[in-house]
Design goal:
Oligomer: single chain
Number of strands: 14
Helix content: 25-40%
Order of helices and strands: EHEHEEHEHEHEHEEEEEEEHHH
Structural class: alpha/beta
Number of domains: 2
Number of helices: 9
Shape: globular
Strand content: 15-25%
Strand order of the largest sheet: 8-9-10-7-11-12-13-14
Radius of gyration: 20 Å
CATH class of the largest domain: Alpha Beta
Distance between the termini: 45 Å
Bound molecules: NADP nicotinamide-adenine-dinucleotide phosphate
Amino acid sequence: MAKTYNWGIIGLGKIAHKFAQDLDTLPNARLQAVASRSEERAREFALQYGAPHAFGSYEEITACPGLDVVYIATPHPGHRDNTVMCLNAGIPVLCEKPFAMNSRQVREMVAAARASDTFLMEAIWTRFNPSTAKALELIGHGMIGDVLSVKADFGFRPLFDPDSRLFNHALGGGSLLDIGIYPVFLALLLLGKPAGIQAMAHIGATGVDEEVGMLFQYQNGQMAHLHASLRAFTKTEAFIYGERGAIHLHTRWHEPTSLSLILEDRRPQDYRFEYTTNGYSYEAEEVMHCLEHGLKESPLLPLSFSQDLMEVLDRVREIIGLQYPEDETG
Ligand SMILES: NC(=O)c1ccc[n+]([C@@H]2O[C@H](COP(=O)([O-])OP(=O)(O)OC[C@H]3O[C@@H](n4cnc5c(N)ncnc54)[C@H](OP(=O)(O)O)[C@@H]3O)[C@@H](O)[C@H]2O)c1
């Protein structure tokens, strides 16, 4: 009989709710424990999703019996410490994006995973969505020829709250790490690490990038045009241009219900995707698949990819002059 995986969640905010809802749809997943800074919030969350264990501190979850994997859903500055704490206790980890605040922290997380021989993956859910699989399949079958350029944006206009994690500098605020990471992810997935990077940003009142534009260049002339904004609702779509045609990932492209294959002289061919969950079930399934096979990282999203991704984000931050306290203190 297939094993049931007992999940834990650390940090019970917005995304934790969506993830818990999706876990509930998976027959081989069970929410076993939740951890919050507040015991009351932990108890409420546990009651809502039927988790048998609720902890009023993050540390306590590592001693929870029967835990197979923990999902980290705290703001970015907590990711490294929360992850390393679980890995050191021998508990596999799925950690939200961005994996950490900078590549030094990512290296520490990878080192902890290797030292404890424990599974670790960044929760870039878009990598596991059916739309990404279809786009890669079409490219793999040569439908658009070699990929020449990628164009992707991600923008929305949240209510300005200087204390919220989107705008608060101390909480890792800014568009790049929160949503700009998606266009950068797509460029890396399709074209790899760029040889040259240009970037410009608008730094807002709280000292974080409220808007960032990026241009990546590759050795053989490939390009990526990327944009993220916390100031405007942008179309949030992606285009992958090849020698013979293009793939259009419709809005919002990181979780689209359709994409079009556009070939010269032909009507666009649409592919549709039915989502029966919030879309986080696919990454959870990947984690359980890896654990089932004794893997310590996902072949679809290896740790080297997360390291490359963070190195590119570091470089963009260097160009736009955006530093966080962790860059000084580690
Ligand atoms: N994959 C996706 O689609 C997606 C979507 C949204 C967010 N995310 C990522 O998930 C992470 C959390 O985002 P979110 O939107 O869920 O944030 P959120 O609603 O603010 O929740 C974050 C939770 O982290 C805990 N926390 C620990 N230290 C905190 C602090 N100093 N200030 C505030 N909260 C703190 C809190 O839980 P307790 O009080 O229970 O400890 C809080 O509820 C971020 O890194 C973000 O990039 C991913």
